[in-house]
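Can you give me the bound-state structure? Components:
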Amino acid sequence: MGLKVYNTLHGRKEKFVPLNEGKVKMYVCGPTVYDTSHIGHARSVVVFDTIFRWLENLHYEVRYVRNFTDVDDKIIKKSNETGVDCKTITEKYIDEFHDEMDALNVLRPSVEPKATEHIRHIIDFIQMLIDKGKAYHVKGGDVYFSLDSFKDYGKLSGRNPDDMRAGARIAVDEKKKNPLDFTLWKPAKPGEPSWESPWGKGRPGWHIECSAMSYEYLGESFDIHGGGKDLIFPHHENEIAQSEAVFGRQFVKYWIHNGFVDINNEKMSKSLGNFTMIKEVLENYSPEVIRMFLLSKHYRSPIDYSEDSMKEISMGLDRIYAFIERLENAGAKIDGSKKGELWGDFSHAMNDDFNSAKALASVFEAVKKGNRLLDDANGLKDGDTQQILNLFYNDIKAVSNILGVFLLDPQFYFKAKKDKGMADKAIDPAEIQDLIRQRADARKNKDFSRADEIRDHLQNLNIVLEDGPEGTTWRFE
RNA sequence: GGCGGCUUGGCCAAGGGGUAAGGCAACGGCCUGCAAAGCCGUUAUUCUCCGGUUCAAAUCCGGAAGCCGCCUCCA
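Here's the bound-state model for the whole set.
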């Protein structure tokens, strides 16, 4: 089965056939760097990172562009409020974004262009629009895109410009020919970042940077353009207008949009004060838990962030790691390129519009099957069993490289979890070892009430004891 | 007002014409001194409701209700 992708442009799943065989060109809208990133940004980035990984796994040569919007009203506003210059602000948040995305195990795209470094290309692009009669320059220095010059306007978002005009909520700007015309270039006020242009000192509008930069790095036409659902209108609609008006051909073949992250079933918003930042979440959960959470639901559906859902994911991740550790203890080895049932199920799910939720379910099924096999083998392994275990191990490692989760050494994972628990609760591991020793003695002497007393005491500290053939181990709940 | 989406067991969540994946939780069993972990089993005759198409619908069509998003900066 080949890859199928839900294309916003047509509102249905379609067979994925890139414009050039074997190659994929993908552009994803990155953040405007004026503030700390929240969990919603993380979702978009993680989703497209996983898509990127899957495309590479399918042996496509992928050129992946994700931009930074580093000139914008919000950045200027922040600069005016704080007295810090724009560049300092944007650099700070770009660094922060990179740090957080690295933590979430997000691969760097092929290129991460910044708007401010492509002003030349933006100006050239606007000039092409003007030359073709698709844009116009007005007194005062603004340049607008002329909606009336582009008859396909609205095809991505399913909007009809005539309807929109009737119910337009936007203030009518006298200088615009059509109230829906949008800004390509705007004159700069004193003190604002600005660049020389044929229309005077100014700066680019928001939408034009993506048309200019995608043209620069991917050409007139490319395969995939992604971003959050909210970007469908007006941002992506406007990009289509700009690029198709200039080149007269299809801008993007497949439009992919991810859903939002809600917080306790409410939209994240400033007024509700429930913006949940990536760094806050990272304080409480391992990056892998966050990443797995973000992939636990289909990328187009809304996903609800809550303490409960994070705990649930965390339990599931422990279970997977425990299984990997068990496989390793049983001597499972990566052996060659053979793929098993897990990989088959996983691939099938990923090929179906990157269904990571279903893909994850196949992992849990494999965990169950593998555990059963290990229980049945009971330490005595024949050649066949060993082969199967190797297959599980192979597959799960391959899967983890796509999802970007559970790829740590399990011992390290559990140790890190322990260390964090101990640090949070200020617990000395030697003390725990001592209590475990005392309990072992008590058990040897059949003093079970003493043994249980110790266990209950540790339980109160969220420490769970596990008695195994090799002695007693402990972990945090 | 315009456009789009969602409604599946206690909770989360796949599926999307052929008779309900997976996770968490709960309960029973194996194991254990007792537990924990792991395994096994049980938990939706049914997929918001009402009509229709079909041999067959949670899946398609029409309608209703509830919820949500975009249309203004937003991932």
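A couple of observations. The radius of gyration of chain A is 27 Å. DSSP finds 16 helices and 15 strands in chain A.
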